[in-house]
Every structure is written in structure tokens, then in C-alpha cells.
């Protein structure tokens, strides 16, 4: 895990990071400064994660993406300029990403995720994977588990999105607040720091979880269809090797509904699939904001991490955490 | 540009996005994020207003700004950066205050929806009224640290921003600040007052010398003697601290001895004060018993900003900063003065040094310059992620407002820790309807004003009550039934009334005033109730929106801050609120109390919640403020 290497922050750093140091403290900022992050998949959601993490002041960020910029990116990917259509997405993002914070080392890597050897992932403290197949996600999660690299995955389709975390065995400190009557009868807020450990299941275990079991179905009926919609979308990706496109809106919608009927009929209405054809900017920002904050928490080892799936419901704007297979 | 690509949105929403015109008020933490989301979603006609310029401490989250933009207009740079995402959008920027009379009801009526991304309550109140009058839906939002909040304000459908009482800003009794400080914040407030006494806009309320009228000493037989003594010596009722300092050429040693030796000795002579308190220990320049060895190994490794200075270091900083500020002050034109700014090195050094010396004298724990800056500058921490999430929800709500799906626009609260049902963003279950007793959005707004009619002047009625507390811009006031014009918004028309006491212009117990703000299109009926005010620093007045209910006690407000929707507010005290984008109130409290109490000065007892407690609360997920 990332250590606070004890080196004091420079005056330039304390000035730039002042408002966040006042929130999470110097120790967290020093840990962030030592963290090396790999981000795979530079779509709109990836751009949001990149922005938040680069602004927070990590040591380095590697942007990995073999795909090229296309029209759909302009719905939410603000790091690529309009004239970069057809260019590699990681490379096209580099200039604006660097401008966010000159103190972070940022590199673009245009290789395919699946072509990367296992050892590649061991060069990082945190690995984030987006726009990947289930097979790649599982492989990389297992590779990360081997060396204690913190693993995150997530995706945004239209107005739906999720994030997943596998921090394996994770130690963190949490602040507890208590009211206490002091000697002069003043009621004071006393803060104590408690150390805790939490264990995460692997992605494989989470995917093996039977979401059609009765108690979970009940939960879905209460929380809304996000979980099912996201399952359907991931299934579409596995089946067709791509995500649904607005260019073939009606054909793709029919395909999605067919998958829905196959895996979970009656748990997600047709109307839930109206906006799933390109990443919608505010939702990329919301889910990307949540995932980035989880990375900051994991690196700084402060506050309880979300264990282990975060879901967003676009109808109510509710964001909630499901602990699956743990 | 999602809306300009066919098939991304369903047709109705696509059309609405392409056709609508949106106003974003504020280009700070939330404003930058909102602007990005709007442009990428395909909104084609956006206006953004902000009077602020870019500071280095903004750059950790206001991502449309970079280092080379420091000092430039936020609205203008935000516009340029956002245009790089899509050059085909029409974005108009205003480097201006939304409170300016240039932006009347007609300005607001041009928009389909207004998105607030503000950092202070005054502007929030104002935009709230303008949107109610113009009947334009307003999406209000704010963040503080890990917490965020988003709410829709739509006339007749939901609560307006002023439907609910908001916790008032903490103030401390003058005698605590001047005579008996017991917490670091008391010394920090004193040090800021001292800055103003020496170099700033001097204010009678901010005296820093011992207060001989302390109620605790009122019954003392020796009081008279003390008063005489002080007059003779001239060290208490000095004409002004500044005149004295000027006469002594701002000599740091003399000022030090005056403040931390003579004045303290004088306080010691007020013996009643020290019956139950630890008496202060006067310090004399140069005689620091605590040798410089006090730099223990832990503190020695820390930076100047992070470590606790020993008394000698404090004295050194005290002298350096005074010398520097003196030079700055002398350069100014006659009658001009310095303005305290937390980001000005010497002004901040001065306050940190003075506060710590005074803490030392009174046996109060000392604070690092970093901590003093938080308290003195009322800094609300702010991070990129909370702003991004909050702004995302603002734009999701915007989509729903355009589609008129109001049943999906409940208020949403963002917290660090999960709520009972594992929720990180927690929407209200229902839309909270307007408060029928609201003194802003109800059909016939009325309040009760409890005031000392024998002490308050007409000028204070206008400036402190109508403008400051009730947020009017250009009020006109007549006495109901008599037609007497007390205050006119026409310049000079009622100037002659300014220094007349309320009772002398027939504003007495039971009298009803009609206040009217033409600019805000807001009329308010004010029933006056006389109350005697004993001491200068007691509340001169209080505003009660619903006389049927007792006023909420501030202590209760903070004590209850444990439920999910709790949002305490810390207002910026000194107007240099360039980066905290604060606000929001306690929803829980709000639903129980429909009374609004806005005292000019709340006299907090010593048992009141301390600033320290507020601080720790600030990192608690129960509290929300806003960016």
C-alpha cells in the first residue's frame, strides 16, 4: 500500500492543495503524492475519473486506451479536442489532462488492455478498468489480488452507471464523533480515530452471485432497476463485442430487451432503456466522482470504503451501495 | 453535445435541451462542473455570471482554470475553457455581481431554468426572490467538504430558499472577546478586531481594550474607582487604538507592552472576573521566560505554517508583520485603510501571532498558523469529487425540470458515510411544499420585528434590518395607515430621517410598517413590538416570521445535527468568500420550525457551541455546507 514517505510538502503543494488538506489532512495528501494510478478506458467516465484524481495530486497516472476518438466521445469526454476524431483516445487526452495539474506525471499508453502482461499491473498502487469485457476484468482483478494492488472497475451507459471495488484486505482509519460533557459542563465534540480492517471478495465471486434469488429480487424492487439494466448492458457488450449505439437505436433497443427477457424478465421496464446509447455527461461526472473519491479513500486509508458495488439510479438520483457475495 | 446527436436522448428531451436557455450563477467549484455538463449535454445557449477572480487555492477543483489564469475573471475564463469542449455553443459571461440592479426580473425571465452555484447566503436569498418573482424554476446547490445538497425551488410547488429558518452566524459577546477569552477562537476574533483597530476600518463594536462595563463587574463597589483610574491613566478609554499607535509610530515593542502587559494588568484589577477563572499572566516584551529551547523535536520538523510558534517566535512575527503593515498603511491616501485578507501573508501572520500571544497570556491552547487561518478566514474545505457529483445531480434535475417531471426533483443529500439503507446520495421521499408562513414566498408576507424603538435609528432599520437581515436591495418603507414615508429608495429623499430614533418618527409598539422592494418586487408587512435592550452588545432586534412559535435556539440547532438531512451553515464573516461555496441549512430543523429568527447579533452564552466544535462537526457527515 502507499506509504506516507515522510517528505514534507512543498510550499507550492500546500498552496495548491490547501482546501483539500483542510479536509483530509497532511498525512492523506502525502500518501496521495506517492500513489501511482493506472486508468484503462478513456471514455467520458474515464475522463471524469482522470480529472478528479489528477487534481487530487497523485504521483502518476497512466492512461491506457487502444481505441480512437469517435463522435460518441463528445457527449462526455472533455479531455479530447473535437479535431482529434480518429486519433488514439489516451494520446488525445494527454494535453488537457496534464494542464489540470502540472505536478502529476501523466503518460499515455496505446496498447490493448488484453495484450498487457500480468507484471504490467504490478507497477501500480491502484488499477481502474472501464469499458472492458468481463473476462478481462476478472483476469486483471486476479492479477491485482496477487500483489495487493487495489482494483476498481466501473462503467457508464447512458444515464446508468456503477463502480466495483476489490481492495482485498484493506486497513483504514475512521473518525468517530462523540458528544462529551467536559469539566465545565460544556458539551464538546470529541473525535477519536479508530483503526479497522475490511475484507473484499474477488470479482469472480461477485459475478457468481445469484441475483435472481428471492431476497435480492425484493431489494431490486425497492431500489429500482439499475442493477438489472447494468447486467443487461454488460451482457450486450459480451454478446456483440461493442456497446449499444444511438446509430442503431431501435435495433439495439430490441436486442437489449431480448437480453432483459432472457436474464431477468419483469425486473426492468422498457422505459429504463431509453437513455443507454452514449455516456451522458452529468452521470459520467456523478459515477466518476464516486469512484475517484473511493480511490482517494483507498490510497489515504481514511474512512470506510464502499464494499463493494456502487449503483446510481437516474430517476431518483439515489446513489447506493450493495455488498454482494461478502 | 449529446443533444445535437440524434438518438442519444429521447426526442422530447433532446428538443428541450436544444431550445432552452440556462443561467448559471457562480463559476466556482460547482459552476465549472455544471458548465461542462451543460455544454457536453448539448445546451446551446448558456449565460454565466461571477464577480470573482481566480485564486491558486481554487485550482484543486475548479478545473476550467489553470495556473496562468490566476487573477483573471472566473466567468470569462470558464466561458473560454468550456468553449474548447464545443465551440458552437453560445456562452455569455458576466464578470459582475448578481446583486447588481442591472439584473432585474426581466433578465431572469429570459431563462427556462436558473442554476445557482453560489457561496454565500445573501446572493442565494436574492436569486431565490428574483426567480420566485420571475416564476423561473431555480436549482439550488452547495457543498462543503464531503457533503453536498441539491434542491429544486419552484414557486407554489416546493419550499423556497427562505421558507426555513437558517442557523445564524456565531458571534461572541464583547466582554468574552475583550476581557475573558477562554478558547482559541476568542483570541482569533480579538486579533482580527485589533487588525481593524490599527489598520482597517475601525468599528466601535470591535474594541479590543478591556471592557469596564462587563455585566459581571457591574455590581462591584470598586467599579467606579476602576473607571476613574482608567480615565486618569488613559489606558482604557483611550481615544482610539489607532491614534495611540500612530502617536507611538507603530512601535511593535510599545504596542506589545500595551496590549499584553498594561491592558492585562488592568483586567487583573477587575477581580470579580478571576474568582472562578484562571487569571491571565501579563507578558512584557523581551522577557520571555520560556526559552527558545521550547522547540521540541516534533515541532521543529514541521513547517512554519504547521507548527505551534513559541512566544518568542510569535513576538518576532508580531514585530515583522506590524512593520510591514505600517508601511503599507502609510502609503495609502488619507482616510483609506487596509482590508484584512486571510491570503495576505502579513495580515495573516499578524492575526496568527497576536491570537497566539493572547492565548498564551490567558492560558488557552495555541494553534498553528494553518489552523488559525481556517478559523479566521472561515475556510470551508472543498474537493473536486463532491463538486462533480453535486453538479452532475444539478444537471440531471435540469433535464427533469425541462421535461416537467417535477415528481423526480426531490432534494438530494450527499454524504461521506452511508445512511441506514446504504445510501450515499439520499433523495427526499417527497417534495416539501412551501411554508405557508414564509415571509418571502407566501401570498402576503409578514413578520414581527422586536426592536428597541428608543435606541434604533431609521438608518439602522434600513441597513441592519431590511438590507442585512431581510436581504432587501432598495427598500421603501411607510407607516401603515399614516402614509408617512420613513425610508425611500430615491436617493436623498429621506436622508433627513437617517439619525432619527424609531420612536421619534412614530414607529412604536404595535405599529405596522409596509416595506417594499421594487427591484425584487417584494412587499413585506412588519409589525413592530418594542423591547428594551440593556446592553450595547445584546441583540438590538429580532425578526420573528411566525409569532405563534418560539424562536429556535442556536444550541438546539447544532445539538440536533445528527440526522441525515442536517446541514448547518457557516456563513462567510468578512465577505472575502472567494472559494468556499458555503451554505445550506438543516432540513430536519427546518421541517419542525416554521419560525424565522434573524437576530442582528446573537448573544451566545459561554455554554454555547464552540467554534472548535463546529470545526470538528465540519468533517462529520452529519453536517452539510455547500460549494
UniProtKB/TrEMBL annotation, chain A:
Pathway, per record: Protein modification; protein sumoylation
Pfam families, sorted: ThiF
Alphabetically ordered keywords of this record: Nucleus, Ubl conjugation pathway
Keyword Ribonucleoprotein: no
Gene Ontology biological process: protein sumoylation
GO terms for MF: SUMO activating enzyme activity
Annotated InterPro entries: ThiF/MoeB/HesA, ThiF_NAD_FAD-bd, Ubiquitin-activating_enz, UBQ/SUMO-activ_enz_E1-like
Statement: the UniProt record of this protein carries the keyword Hydrolase: no
The family this protein is said to belong to: Belongs to the ubiquitin-activating E1 family.
Quaternary organization: Heterodimer of SAE1 and UBA2/SAE2. The heterodimer corresponds to the two domains that are encoded on a single polypeptide chain in ubiquitin-activating enzyme E1. Interacts with UBE2I.
Name the UniProt record assigns to this protein: SUMO-activating enzyme subunit 1
Automatic annotation (TrEMBL), chain B:
Main subcellular localisation: nucleus
GO molecular function: ATP binding; metal ion binding; SUMO activating enzyme activity; transferase activity
A Pfam family annotated for this UniProt entry: UAE_UbL
Binding positions (ATP): 26-31, 50, 58-61, 74, 97-98, 119-124
Biological processes, Gene Ontology terms: protein sumoylation
Polar residues composition-biased segments: 553-566
Intracellular or extracellular location(s): Nucleus
The keyword Coiled coil is assigned to this record: no
Record-linked InterPro entries: ThiF/MoeB/HesA, ThiF_NAD_FAD-bd, UAE_UbL_dom, Ub-E1_IAD_1, Ub_act_enz_dom_a_sf, Uba2, UBA_E1_SCCH, Ubiquitin-activating_enz
Keyword terms: ATP-binding, Metal-binding, Nucleotide-binding, Nucleus, Transferase, Ubl conjugation pathway, Zinc
Pathway(s) annotated for this protein in UniProt: Protein modification; protein sumoylation
Source species, domain of life: Eukaryota
Domain (THIF-type NAD/FAD binding fold): residue spans on this chain: 8-405
Protein residues bound to Zn(2+): 160, 163, 438, 441
Catalytic residues in the record: 175 (glycyl thioester intermediate)
Ranges where the Ubiquitin/SUMO-activating enzyme ubiquitin-like domain occurs: 449-533
Domain Ubiquitin-activating enzyme SCCH residue range list: 312-373
Annotated region described as Disordered, given as residue ranges: 204-239, 553-582, 601-627
Record field: compositional bias (Basic and acidic residues): 604-618
GO CC, any one term: cytoplasm
Oligomeric form and interacting partners: Heterodimer.
Family, similarity comment: Belongs to the ubiquitin-activating E1 family.
PANTHER family in the cross-refs: SUMO-ACTIVATING ENZYME SUBUNIT 2, UBIQUITIN-ACTIVATING ENZYME E1
Protein's UniProt name: SUMO-activating enzyme subunit
Organism of this sequence: Pseudolycoriella hygida
Amino acid at each position: 500500500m502507499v506509504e506516507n514517505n515522510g517528505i514534507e510538502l512543498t510550499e507550492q503543494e500546500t498552496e495548491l492543495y490547501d482546501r483539500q488538506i483542510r479536509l483530509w489532512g497532511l498525512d492523506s495528501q502525502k500518501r496521495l503524492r506517492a500513489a501511482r494510478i493506472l486508468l484503462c478506458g478513456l471514455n467520458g467516465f474515464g475522463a471524469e475519473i482522470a480529472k478528479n484524481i489528477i487534481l487530487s495530486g497523485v504521483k502518476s497516472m497512466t492512461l491506457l486506451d487502444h481505441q480512437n476518438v469517435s463522435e460518441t466521445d463528445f457527449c462526455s469526454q472533455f479531455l479530447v479536442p473535437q479535431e482529434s476524431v480518429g486519433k488514439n483516445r489516451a494520446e488525445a487526452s494527454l494535453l488537457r489532462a496534464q494542464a489540470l495539474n502540472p505536478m502529476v506525471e501523466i503518460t499515455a499508453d496505446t496498447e490493448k488492455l488484453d495484450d498487457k502482461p500480468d507484471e504490467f499491473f504490478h507497477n501500480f498502487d491502484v488499477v481502474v478498468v472501464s469499458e472492458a469485457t468481463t473476462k478481462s476484468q476478472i483476469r486483471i482483478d486476479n492479477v491485482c489480488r496477487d500483489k495487493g494492488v487495489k482494483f476498481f472497475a466501473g462503467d457508464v451507459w447512458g444515464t446508468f452507471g456503477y463502480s466495483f471495488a476489490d481492495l482485498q484486505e484493506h486497513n483504514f482509519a475512521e473518525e468517530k464523533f462523540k458528544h462529551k460533557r467536559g469539566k465545565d459542563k460544556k458539551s464538546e465534540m470529541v473525535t477519536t480515530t479508530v483503526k479497522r480492517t475490511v475484507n473484499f471478495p474477488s470479482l469472480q465471486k461477485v459475478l457468481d452471485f445469484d441475483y435472481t434469488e428471492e431476497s435480492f429480487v425484493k431489494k431490486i424492487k425497492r431500489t429500482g432497476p439499475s442493477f438489472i439494466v447494468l447486467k443487461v448492458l454488460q451482457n450486450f457488450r459480451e454478446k456483440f463485442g461493442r456497446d449499444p449505439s444511438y446509430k442503431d437505436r431501435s435495433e439495439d433497443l430490441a436486442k437489449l430487451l431480448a437480453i432483459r427477457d432472457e436474464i431477468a424478465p419483469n425486473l426492468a421496464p422498457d422505459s429504463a432503456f431509453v437513455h443507454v446509447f452514449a455516456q451522458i455527461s452529468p452521470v459520467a461526472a456523478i459515477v466518476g466522482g464516486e469512484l475517484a473519491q473511493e480511490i482517494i479513500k483507498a490510497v489515504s486509508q481514511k474512512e470506510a470504503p464502499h464494499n463493494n458495488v456502487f449503483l446510481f439510479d437516474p430517476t431518483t438520483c439515489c446513489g447506493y451501495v450493495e455488498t454482494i457475495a461478502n | 453535445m449529446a443533444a445535437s446527436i440524434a438518438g442519444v436522448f429521447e426526442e422530447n428531451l433532446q428538443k428541450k435541451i436544444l431550445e432552452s436557455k440556462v443561467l448559471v450563477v457562480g463559476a466556482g467549484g460547482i459552476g465549472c462542473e455544471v458548465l461542462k455538463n451543460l455544454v457536453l449535454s448539448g445546451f446551446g445557449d448558456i449565460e454565466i455570471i461571477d464577480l470573482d477572480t481566480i485564486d491558486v487555492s481554487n485550482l484543486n477543483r475548479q478545473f476550467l482554470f489553470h495556473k496562468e489564469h490566476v487573477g483573471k475573471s472566473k466567468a470569462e475564463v470558464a466561458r473560454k475553457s468550456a468553449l474548447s469542449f464545443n465551440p458552437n455553443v453560445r456562452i455569455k459571461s458576466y464578470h459582475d455581481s448578481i446583486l447588481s440592479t442591472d439584473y432585474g426580473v426581466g433578465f431572469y425571465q429570459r431563462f427556462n431554468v436558473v442554476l445557482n452555484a453560489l457561496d454565500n447566503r445573501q446572493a442565494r436569498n436574492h436569486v431565490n426572490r428574483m426567480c420566485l418573482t420571475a416564476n423561473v424554476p431555480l436549482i439550488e446547490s452547495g457543498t462543503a467538504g464531503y457533503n453536498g445538497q441539491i434542491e429544486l425551488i419552484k414557486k407554489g410547488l416546493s419550499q423556497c430558499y427562505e421558507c426555513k429558518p437558517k442557523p445564524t452566524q456565531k458571534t461572541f459577546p464583547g466582554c468574552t472577546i475583550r476581557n475573558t477569552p477562554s478558547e482559541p477562537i476568542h483570541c482569533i476574533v480579538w486579533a482580527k478586531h485589533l487588525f481593524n483597530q490599527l489598520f482597517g476600518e475601525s468599528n466601535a463594536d470591535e474594541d479590543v481594550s478591556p471592557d469596564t462595563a462587563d455585566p459581571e463587574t457591574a455590581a462591584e463597589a470598586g467599579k467606579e474607582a476602576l473607571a476613574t483610574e482608567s480615565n486618569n491613566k488613559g489606558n482604557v478609554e483611550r481615544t482610539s487604538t489607532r491614534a495611540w499607535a500612530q502617536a507611538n509610530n507603530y512601535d511593535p515593542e510599545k504596542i506589545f507592552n500595551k496590549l499584553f502587559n498594561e491592558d492585562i494588568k488592568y483586567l487583573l484589577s477587575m477581580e470579580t472576573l478571576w474568582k472562578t477563572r484562571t487569571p491571565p499572566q501579563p507578558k512584557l516584551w523581551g522577557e520571555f521566560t520560556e526559552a527558545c529551547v521550547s522547540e521540541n523535536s516534533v515541532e521543529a520538523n514541521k513547517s512554519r505554517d504547521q507548527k505551534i510558534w513559541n512566544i518568542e517566535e510569535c513576538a518576532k512575527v508580531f514585530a515583522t508583520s506590524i512593520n510591514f503593515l505600517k508601511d503599507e498603511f502609510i502609503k495609502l491616501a488619507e482616510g483609506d485603510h487596509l482590508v484584512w485578507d486571510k491570503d495576505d501573508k502579513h495580515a495573516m501572520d499578524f492575526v496568527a501571532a497576536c491570537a497566539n500571544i493572547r492565548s498564551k497570556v490567558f492560558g488557552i491552547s495555541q494553534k498553528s498558523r494553518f489552523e488559525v487561518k481556517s478559523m479566521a478566514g472561515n475556510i470551508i474545505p472543498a474537493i473536486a469529487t463532491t463538486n462533480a457529483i453535486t453538479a452532475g445531480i444539478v444537471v440531471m434535475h435540469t433535464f427533469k425540470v425541462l421535461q416537467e417531471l417535477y415528481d423526480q426533483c426531490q432534494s438530494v443529500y450527499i454524504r461521506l458515510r452511508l445512511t441506514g439503507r446504504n445510501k450515499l446520495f439520499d433523495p427526499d421521499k417527497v417534495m416539501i411544499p412551501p411554508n405557508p408562513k414564509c415571509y418571502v414566498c407566501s401570498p402576503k408576507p409578514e413578520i414581527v420585528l422586536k426592536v428597541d424603538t428608543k435606541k434604533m435609528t431609521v438608518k439602522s432599520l434600513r441597513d441592519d434590518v431590511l438590507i442585512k437581515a431581510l436581504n432587501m436591495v432598495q427598500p421603501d418603507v411607510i407607516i401603515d395607515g399614516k402614509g408617512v414615508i420613513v425610508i425611500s429608495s430615491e436617493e436623498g429623499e429621506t436622508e433627513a430621517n437617517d439619525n432619527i430614533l424609531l420612536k421619534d418618527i412614530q414607529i412604536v409598539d404595535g405599529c405596522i410598517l409596509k416595506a417594499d422592494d421594487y427591484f425584487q418586487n417584494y412587499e413585506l408587512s412588519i409589525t413592530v413590538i418594542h423591547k428594551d435592550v440593556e446592553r450595547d452588545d445584546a441583540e438590538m432586534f429580532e425578526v420573528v416570521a411566525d409569532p405563534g412559535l418560539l424562536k429556535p435556539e442556536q444550541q438546539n440547532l447544532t445539538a440536533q445535527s445528527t440526522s441525515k438531512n442536517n446541514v448547518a451553515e457557516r456563513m462567510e464573516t468578512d465577505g472575502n468568500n472567494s472559494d468556499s461555496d458555503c451554505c445550506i441549512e438543516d432540513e430536519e430543523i427546518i421541517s419542525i420550525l416554521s419560525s424565522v429568527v434573524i437576530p442582528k447579533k446573537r448573544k451566545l452564552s459561554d455554554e454555547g457551541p464552540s467554534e472548535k466544535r463546529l470545526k470538528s462537526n465540519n468533517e462529520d457527515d452529519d453536517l452539510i455546507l455547500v460549494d
